């Protein structure tokens, strides 16, 4: 066999040709929808357009999906399926995220699907005729999940045993798809790593985008710019996103965990999320962290006592209060809120590191098995067991039982459980 042999799978979507090395079978950039225009809702691919699909080459700019399977997987194997939604602040990313490569999953008998979706204004600008809670980027993923439901059996997967996995913006999308008004039974459980919701809605920020564009924010206007002056649209978006400072410029807002469907959810965060953000590093290095926390805490979402939050942040790390505020405001507060409000079973896990910060994205390759060894075995087992349907081996997150959290050290093999690790975040950011 050559290094990469072509293999064709016959599915309801058509005959799809991918590449195998004899162990892993990959299908790159498979189309799952038709997009009539950059700011229009995607649609299912009509049956008459289904034909031969060449999935041997990755096209990162396409709104498409990729599938990675064991080379011998076939119909009726009923392998568990991971559908992964990438992060990237709702601004960038691709369905070819190498940090979450599916090869280790395939070796463990798990199929991986990477979903691409529209980002920036094409995916998350809202117009006057959009339904409440509707975002084109999230609707793209919903169509992708429908494609998986119709086709994954042809690749050896079990459509009744799908775990939706997302990181950062992808975790936000996963939680939005798990809301009762969106949930259609296309997945059985959710793993949401470091979700991040913007603090203000697009409607409240629409005026600043209008100023940056110098044109009305309508579907027709943005479509003309995208087709005729894409560079002008790109520069205008860059100005718009700069105005939003440390917050996400786009994305779904008004998250309410009580609206989630009653399904198992595993929520994770890293303890130090955005310690490596340059602005936070500069502020803290100059000794201005406490001052900036006092000035910005309210604007960044702190509702409780700023003085108490600052005291606890400095107790954890006296030198980095601003770095902690950035990460808590962007990610950990949403983990706390989802854990507090979700109606179904929730388990919480937090990643720490030995003698250094554990930062945003650090856990992705560890969970996906791209770093092997005894020190990462517990982290990999957490992922594989959850995907296979095994209930996590520690207490679920409930106020009445101590709000338990599994602590996983990314630098050592240490695993422990602690109670209420997000207390300072919950008390600072969540309403009474």
Automatic annotation (TrEMBL):
Its EC number is 3.1.1.-. Residues 65-195 form the Carboxylesterase type B domain. GO terms for molecular function: hydrolase activity. The keyword Hydrolase applies. InterPro entries: AB_hydrolase_fold (IPR029058), CarbesteraseB (IPR002018), Carboxylesterase_B_AS (IPR019826). Keywords: Hydrolase. Pfam families: COesterase. Belongs to the type-B carboxylesterase/lipase family. PANTHER family: CARBOXYLIC ESTER HYDROLASE. This is Carboxylic ester hydrolase.
């Amino acid at each position: 066999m050559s290094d990469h042999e072509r293999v064709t799978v016959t599915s309801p979507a058509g005959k799809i040709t991918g590449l195998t090395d004899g162990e892993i079978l990959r299908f790159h950039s498979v189309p799952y929808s038709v997009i009539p225009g950059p700011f229009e809702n995607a649609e299912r691919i009509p049956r008459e357009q289904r034909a031969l699909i060449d999935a041997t080459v990755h096209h990162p700019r396409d709104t498409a999906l990729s599938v990675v399977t064991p080379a011998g997987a076939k119909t009726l194997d009923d392998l568990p399926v991971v559908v992964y939604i990438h992060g990237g602040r709702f601004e960038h990313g691709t369905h070819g995220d190498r940090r979450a490569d599916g090869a280790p999953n395939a070796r463990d008998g798990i199929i991986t699907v990477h979903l691409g979706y529209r980002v920036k204004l094409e995916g998350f600008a809202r117009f006057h005729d959009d339904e409440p809670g509707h975002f084109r980027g999230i609707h793209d993923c919903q169509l992708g999940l429908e494609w998986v439901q119709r086709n994954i059996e042809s690749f050896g997967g079990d459509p009744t045993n799908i775990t939706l996995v997302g990181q950062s913006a992808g975790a936000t999308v996963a939680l939005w798809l798990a809301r009762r008004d969106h949930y259609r039974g296309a997945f059985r459980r959710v793993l949401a790593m470091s979700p991040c919701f913007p603090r203000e809605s697009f409607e409240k920020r629409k005026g600043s985008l209008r100023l940056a564009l110098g044109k009305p924010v309508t579907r027709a206007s943005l479509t003309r710019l995208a087709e005729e002056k894409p560079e002008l649209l790109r520069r205008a978006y860059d100005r718009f996103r700069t105005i939003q400072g440390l917050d996400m410029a786009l994305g779904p807002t008004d998250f309410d965990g009580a609206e989630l469907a009653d399904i198992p959810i595993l929520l994770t965060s890293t303890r130090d999320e955005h310690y490596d953000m340059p602005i936070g590093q500069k502020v803290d290095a100059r000794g201005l962290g406490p001052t900036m926390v006092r000035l910005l805490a309210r604007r960044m979402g702190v509702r409780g006592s700023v003085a108490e939050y600052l005291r606890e942040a400095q107790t954890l790390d006296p030198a980095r209060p601003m770095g902690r505020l950035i990460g808590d405001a962007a990610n950990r507060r949403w983990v706390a809120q989802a854990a507090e409000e979700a109606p179904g079973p929730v388990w919480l896990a937090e990643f720490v590191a030995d003698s250094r910060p554990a930062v945003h994205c650090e856990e992705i390759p560890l969970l996906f098995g791209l770093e092997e060894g005894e020190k990462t075995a517990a982290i990999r087992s957490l992922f594989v067991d959850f995907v296979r349907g095994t209930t996590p081996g520690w207490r679920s997150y409930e106020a009445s039982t101590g709000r338990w959290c599994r602590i996983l050290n990314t630098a050592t093999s240490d695993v422990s459980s602690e109670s209420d690790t997000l207390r300072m975040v919950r008390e600072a950011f969540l309403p009474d």
